[in-house]
Amino acid sequence: GTWRRWTMSRGVLRVCKRFWSSLSADRALQSLSERGLLHQSTRVGQLEHRPGSAVYVGFDPTADSLHVGNLLAIIALLHLRHAGYQPIAVVGGATGVVGDPSGRLTEREKLESEGLEKSVAGITETLTRIFQNDEDRCASRGVTVEEPRLKILNNADWWNGVSATEFVSDIARAFRLTSMLGKESVKQRLQTEEGMSCTEFLYPVFQAYDFLHLHRHHNCWLQLGGGDQWGNITAGCEYVRKMTGKIVHGLTLPLLTTISGEKIGKSVGNAVWLSSEKTSCYELYQYFVRTTDQDVRRFLEHFTFLPLEEIQAIMREHESSPEKFTAQKCLAEHVTRLVHGESGLQQALNATAVLFGDADALRKLSGAALEQLFKDAPSVELPSELLASDDLTILELAVRTDTVPSNYHGQKLIRHGGLYINAVRVSSTEELFQKDKDLLSGNMTILRTGKKSYRLIKWR
Q: Cα separation of 217 and 158, whole Å?
């Protein structure tokens, strides 16, 4: 009787463990599905939330920054981390050299080692920053996120030890040409005049082996990727099954597209970067503020962690007064805070206020932020010795910098209230330049004529 009770208890315990582990996995996947982030998947309903189990996303270092199109995968990885999965980001130091043909009609340019190292470092910095910002977001809500921490791995670390003969005899042997030729990315490329190189054709083999390596050494059971990664992901799932007998899973996320359906990314020339050196905090913020009414609900679900019922409330408020852009501003604030942190969001808000004529906000901007904000405006350098003069008028400065074509035009513009220095209207043709109030951070001054015509003056 005792043996039977002990055996039944163990059986019940195993059933309960399976129930709660699958419940945790189901909850995370249900959240992705409800937010429209689940595009295609293997039978992920069978995915069990094993203790310490990991999920991974791969990023090939084809540029020194990730872009908004990559942000969906990062956010999905964060959702799964919140559910207790170990998040892994693989930066493709090896696969980046090979070049992924998915979604492309031409072959990628070969990456040189110097540019590759810079790109790996840039992507690593971006991922680390975003995950830290998410921890800060959680902490501001009283939620402490300690484990599991993001692991950032470079697949060159394991591929560099694989010889050509080992690759052909041990790894590539498991793949069949029939299934590889049947992949959509391969069929599309074979129909083009350029065709497809052997290097690109073998890319799915490299990505599949990555999944096997992560499964064996990091307990990885799930791979995420963009919609154009489905063929590569399923190849990896099949390869792991062949080599280990274990069932692993994969799912893809929807590709971020414009209203016309065009993919957003660097390959089509319209990328919005996640590095402030390539796309400023202000530009990222404005990108999402310009989201159309047709897309804003979807983007709130995709790009924020707001509960769905809260998003519904935001949309009701927005629909009652669409001219206030309530939903778009909420979206822009959440994304900018996630990507660039609270300080980056404040920079974006200050820059926005500046362009709406807020002189106080202008004074809060750093020299670097000023240069970034007015990078498209004409700029001129003037010798700092001029600042020692006590009789330099703003009108004279405007003429000297070609902000106005002549003294006469400048006088007329001032009389009509159309000349501004650092967002403050110039009230008199005799008004003097005052170093203590007219010199901004980084030894710069901003002149403006009309509503949007700026001139950036750099005192050197």
A: 11
CA atoms within 13 A on the CB side of 362: 22
Place of tokens 């501004």: 420
Instruction: Write down the pLDDT at residue 220.
Output: 96
The DSSP output letter for 393 is: B
Name the nearest CA neighbour of 91 among 113, 63, 120, 65. Answer: 120
Provide CB contacts within 8 A for 391, sequence distance 6+.
432
| Long-range contacts, stretch 289-293, CB < 8 angstroms, 24+ apart | 289/325, 289/328, 289/329, 289/331, 289/332, 290/328, 291/328, 291/331, 291/332, 292/259, 293/318, 293/322, 293/327
Question: Residue 397: CB partners within 8 Å, gap ≥ 6?
Answer: 403, 421, 433, 445, 447, 457
Task: Output the six-digit token pair for 398.
Answer: 């405007």
Angle (CA) 65-71-75 rounded to 5° is 135
Count Cβ atoms within 10 A of the Cβ of residue 287 and give its class: 0-12 exposed, 13-18 middle, 19 or more buried: middle
Amino acid at 338: L
At 294-340, the pLDDT tens digits run 999 999 999 999 999 999 999 999 999 999 999 999 999 999 999 99
pTM, two decimal places:
0.81
Neighbouring C-beta atoms of residue 81, cutoff 10 Å: 21
Q: What number of CA atoms fall less than 13 Å from residue 57's CA on the CB side?
A: 28
Distance CA 260, CA 213 (A): 39
Transcribe 340-363 into DSSP letters.
HHHHHHHHHHHHHHHHTT-HHHHH
- Regions in the chain scoring below 50 on pLDDT: 2-23, 105
pLDDT score for 186? 77
Helical (H) or strand (E) element with 4: helix 2-34
pLDDT digits (tens, 9 = 90+) for 356-402: 888 998 888 888 888 888 888 899 999 998 888 888 999 999 999 99
pLDDT number for residue 13: 38
Q: Which strands sit side by side in the sheet containing 444-449, from one edge to the other?
A: 379-382, 453-459, 444-449, 419-421, 424-425
Q: Which residues contact 339 (CB under 8 A, 6 or more apart)?
A: 71, 129, 130, 133, 274, 284
CB 107 within 8 A of CB 200: yes
Of 343, 339, 332, 373, give the one whose Cα is nearest residue 356.
Answer: 373
Among candidates 358, 307, 263, 359, which has minimal Cα distance to 67? 263
